[in-house]
Design brief:
The chain is of the alpha+beta class. It has helices spanning 29-38, 59-69, 113-148, and strands at 2-5, 26-27, 41-44, 51-52, 55-56, 77-82, 88-93, 99-107.
């Protein structure tokens, strides 16, 4: 199983002296939107005995979540964002504008952000194509019924 953690010790220098350092990359803007679209199922981690898609959270991921919670600014909650076989642990800091941080991904997580965006585009295209063909078929059926009646 593929496991990727995002802990980055190089981020030890804070942007300002009043703000504690968070050693995980923040998800924001286009990247946050893309991950939310790609991983539409979100639920908080109530305990580490949670199961996702029939499998327990791997021990290495649990260790990474625990390390993230012991940081200088612990997350208000940790959520698992997922789709089939591709979960990601995300630390959340609540507030007027919540902040999201990547902690770890596992399972089928080898996709890069670029590959994931391409896959989302293909899925949306296929959805539009399928809907268009369905509407066309429905129109033909209605026309046939009207013609016979």
């Amino acid at each position: 199983m593929f496991i990727e953690t995002y802990y980055d010790e190089r981020a030890l220098v804070p942007c300002s002296m009043s703000e504690p350092v968070i050693l995980y990359p923040e998800l924001s803007g286009e990247e946050l939107t893309a991950w939310r679209d790609y991983l539409p199922i979100r639920r908080p981690v109530a305990n580490f005995a949670s199961w996702f898609n029939g499998e327990a959270i791997p021990g290495r991921v649990i260790s990474e979540i625990e390390r993230a919670q012991k940081g200088p600014l612990p997350f208000d909650r940790v959520e698992i964002w997922c789709r089939t076989d591709d979960p990601m642990a995300v630390g959340v800091i609540d507030g007027e504008k919540p902040r999201y941080f990547s902690i770890a991904r596992w399972g089928d997580a080898k996709l890069t952000l670029r590959q994931m965006k391409r896959q989302l585009w293909i899925e949306k295209f296929l959805l539009v194509l399928t809907a268009t063909r369905g509407i066309g078929l429905f129109t033909v059926i209605l026309a046939a019924i009207a013609y016979q009646g």
